[in-house]
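Morning. Coffee machine broken again, so started the prediction first thing and wrote up yesterday's gels while waiting. Chain of 399 residues, entered below exactly as on the submission form.
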Amino acid sequence: MRIALLSSFFYPHVGGTEKYVEDLATELARRGHAVTVFTHTAADGDASAFRKGFRIVRLPTVWGRYQPLFSLMPYRHLLSFDVVHSHVPPTHFTQAVARRLARIPLVVTYHCDLEINENFWIWRVPRWVVKLVNRYSAWARARLLEGSDQIIATTASYAKDSPVLSRFEAKIVPIGVDVEKFRSVAERIACGRELRRADRLLYVGRLAPSKGIDHLIEALTLARSRGVAATLEVVGGGELLPRLSRMARSLGVEEAVTFSGELPFEELVRAYLEATALVLPSVVRIEAFGIVQLEALALGTPVIASNLSGVREVVERSGGGYLFERGSSESLAETIARAFSNPRLTRQKGEAGQAYVRANYTWRSIADEIETLYRSAIAYKASQAPARPRSSLLRVFES
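Came back before lunch.
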């Protein structure tokens, strides 16, 4: 099949959706499909590039790297594909092409609700702005889903709880992880040795307000004040690094918190292997799954995660960790204490999670499901009445 994947953000931009699209493209290309990723994220000025067997087309944008609201989209290029698979949010990329695909099926993976709160950025956002943005975003996403041929959700709980997604019929296809890659690198690093520490919490991800890292540092402070010998390694970069560093210093836990920045893959695997547990403290519904949970569990590292829709499903299904009340530093501190005070149970949870992830979250099995969805969408579109011809003038503008 000729497959176009549309993702506003992509490598080298770091995020869950970007990782999902890259891994899916890699697996589909490995199966012999002709895969092209269309994105707005620049890569050292290159207009296009090949990576891991698939093609990347990087489109120009008028308004900055992170807000590609006004972009030039070569609609005619998409007309040569068998299926277009778009990834939202954001929605503007897909909305730009959704009504111009004619006989080509549109598959949409709905990654999350684009929900912000007052602490969404480094400054507090006025409440009226929060309400306005969230209301418009919900309307735009619903309008987009109405025009798609197939909708994919990554967890059943998120599909049920989402105020937008719950109004539509969606196929549940989880996110995957390259189990063999993690296993082979882990075996090379460990060489049969036990690297797991008894005092190390690990955070992996962007340093952004929605991730709840401030609650994690507060919880670490509470846990240590109650006699829990815990330290924290923070892996990732982002706009909150200066504020989080000051926070750790002001709370007196500066020596217990290490900010490691973004790590090469092998060093990231080592961090997972050394951690007592991975913590996913996200506070808003932008976090709908948490791919880092799969990476940690694939290596036997148990997880401590916010009780968010989607996020909690990984822990509940795998038995691979603990849940705490989102946004509550007290609840997180209590959960950390529980995990550290019962190392045998915590280790067993990591082992259970590892077995479950290796059996149920491999990209090979997930790509099987997505291929089936593609073929179903293509067959459905072919059975529909021919689209009304578009005017020659409109075709000129769309080209």
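Residues 388-399 have pLDDT under 50 and may be disordered. Going to sketch it on the whiteboard this afternoon.
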